[in-house]
Amino acid sequence: SNPKISFIGLGNMGAPMALNLLKAGMQVCVFDLMPQAVAKLVEQGASGAASVLEVVKDADVVISMLPAGKHVEALYLGSEQHGGLISVLAKNCLVIDSSTIDAATAQKVGKALATQGLRFIDAPVSGGVGGATAGTLTFIVGGEQQDYQDALPVLQLMGKNIFHAGALGAGQVAKICNNMLLSVLMVGTSEALQLAIDNGLDPKVVSDIMLQSSGRNWTLELYNPCPDVMPNVPSSKAYQGGFMVDLMKKDLGLAMDTAVKSQSSTPMGSLAQSLYAMHSLQGNGQLDFSSIFSMFSKHSNK
Length: 302
Ligand code: NAD
What we know:
Elements: E1 4-8, H1 14-23, E2 27-31, H2 35-43, E3 47-48, H3 52-55, E4 61-64, H4 69-77, E5 94-97, H5 103-114, E6 119-122, E7 125-126, H6 128-134, E8 137-142, H7 145-155, E9 159-166, H8 170-198, H9 203-211, H10 218-222, H11 245-262, H12 267-284, H13 293-297
Parallel strand pairs: 1-2, 1-4, 2-3, 4-5, 5-6, 8-9
Antiparallel strand pairs: 7-8
Bound molecules: nicotinamide-adenine-dinucleotide (NAD).
Nicotinamide-adenine-dinucleotide binds near residues 10, 52, 67 and 71.
């Protein structure tokens, strides 16, 4: 029979992910600190819980989708306010944390749960709210092979591409490597487009040229940062929706922390982090991350 799933954290990402589990006919019990978020999912067929202890009752699988590492650690290992799920989950329960957090916290939580016979994988996602809604997320998993195998059928109901990156924490490392590279591509594409505009070129024409040349990259293919080059992307909708500057800033902070720990050299990532931090300070934290383009266009003479 189908596993009983508990879903904790029903924000921008968690709510549509939980909904896809329901649509697939799964039994899902949900919890969020915001009662409205729980009520919405209950309307769509979930059973709702009034507390975090209630939501995990009889759970075979627990999925969490929370903002940051401190929330994940407090949920599972406990905080001053409450004891963690570590002391209430049934033996052999499979815990899937899909939040984007630091690898060290993922490893700490996973190791602690293992001492109680509980299984944990880190499974951060790529694909944004659009991917969460469409059920086409990419899951990047760190943990034991057997736990990855057991999680697959559930992850496949919410995502399309599911990777096993390596041991505990490896999912988080792979995820922030990707986002660091993405930020570098976004900044580089933005300055190149503005350079072309400043020299009298049409950004649409130069985008087409670069797409068929060696500067081709994901941002030019699917997410052009210059307004009105592409329809239906955040840059053509006043940078609304999409992936927030402040979330990119958070991921770059995680990437830089990781680089310090492993003594890796990441000059491009470090520069991108500074630029995104400045962009956020200038009041753009809630805009889509492609709005970094305006940092170049505003200071241009054209
Ligand atoms: P969000 O802020 O919209 O949602 C987080 C939810 O968690 C909120 O509803 C909040 O009330 C709830 N919450 C916090 N602490 C809780 C607790 N102790 N118990 C129960 N509920 C709790 O965030 P989001 O956009 O859904 O992102 C979640 C995670 O996914 C983040 O780590 C983010 O970096 C990552 N992520 C987001 C995107 C995106 O495009 N939004 C894409 C990929 C990954």
